[in-house]
Amino acid sequence: MHVTTEVWVVTIVALVAILAVDLLIIGRRPHVPSMKECGIAIGVFSGLAVLFGLGVWYFSGPQYAGEFFAGWLTEYSLSIDNLFVFVIIMSNMRVPRHLQQFALMVGIVLALVFRGIFIAVGAAAIDRFSWVFFIFGGFLIYTAVRLYLDYRREDSVDDDVENALLRWVKRVFPATDQYHGTKLTVVEAGRRLVTPMLFVIVALGSTDLLFALDSIPAIFGLTNEPYLVFTANVFALMGLRQLYFLIGGLLQRLVYLSVGLAIILAFIGVKLILHAMHEYHLDGPLGLDGEIPIWVSLAVIIGTLAVTTIASLLKSRRDARLATPPAGDGTAA
User: Fold this and answer.
1) How far apart are CA 201 and CA 264, in angstroms?
2) If pLDDT is split at 50, 70 and 90, which confidence band does 10 have?
3) Residues forming a β-bridge with 188
4) Which of 32, 25, 20, 19 lies closest to 246 in space, CA to CA?
5) Which of 9, 73, 251, 296 is deepest in the core (most CB within 10 A)?
6) Three-state secondary-structure class, residue 326
């Protein structure tokens, strides 16, 4: 895929401008977005992603368009999984609801920065060392197994959002217990103190770093084009803040999302290993074909997400029905 420097510049400027406008609005007026506001924002961002994919189809053909859509859907799914952790962080740190939008936006920007770094490093490594695909593939299979085992454990959701970095910040810097809007530091009695908002951002940023380790190998398993990797990640992060408020409790109802992600990551991991074997001519003696068509990848991703989403909603509805006592059964209020 040939992408000129001018196209790179225009794309980066346009996408960063969209995020910058959103960030400036957030920083100036932190609030709880309405359902209408969230719905419009998600619709616009999703529409832009679809239009971009169609543009890739028009200028570069269906192969690269399929790679973009597969990458975007996978990264979007992983980002939604990231929201589960964000929900826990916001709850445990008692972030006021009207400030959560600011914290989420900062978390999304940090995720973009970390992913951009990993994209650059990953692209350079892949360009020079084909054996990196073996490492990426093995890591994704390991992550898939970990996700599935976490799902099987009833205590898979860890309510302790403390990590080494956050504990260090709390130990080193004097802090106040009160939120002061979106301020990270305040002056009280002549002392500079950090606010709980700084702790929230540290927690979100360190979480973003861990999720970037999963997402970047996954996207490189679907496309080797840095341009598509970058744009798929940016579009996947757009609208997550609004999605957080729009679906609310729906996140808790997607009980099989981890299973679906485990299947997708395992599939991409196997795909990467097969591709690496093909690069080193190891697939021939085994009677394997290292190149899985992108339409197969796209079908597996869409099919898995559809099945797990429908199954999750059906299970949540059944569990809610079983937990509600029948009317008139004499149960005391």
Assistant:
1) 29
2) very high
3) 191
4) 32
5) 73
6) coil
The residues near 246 (Cβ < 8 Å, ≥ 6 apart) are 35, 38, 39, 42
| Cα dihedral: 271, 275, 276, 278 (round 10) | 140
Residues 85 and 207: beta-carbon distance below 8 Å: yes
Question: To which H or E segment does residue 246 belong?
Answer: helix 240-247
SS3 192: strand
pTM for the whole thing? 0.73
CA torsion through residues 305, 308, 310, 313, sign: negative
Cα gap 81→60, rounded to integer Å: 31
pLDDT single digits (tens) 92-130: 778 887 788 788 878 878 888 888 888 887 777 776 766
Distance of alpha carbon 297 from alpha carbon 277, whole angstroms = 18
Q: Which residue has the tokens 């341009």?
A: 227
The confidence score (pLDDT) of residue 53 equals 94
CB contact at 8 A, 98 and 281? no
The residue ranges of every structural domain in the chain are: 5-318
Which residue, 220, 177, 310, 216, is CA-closest to 256? Answer: 310
* Local structure of 193: helix, strand or coil: strand
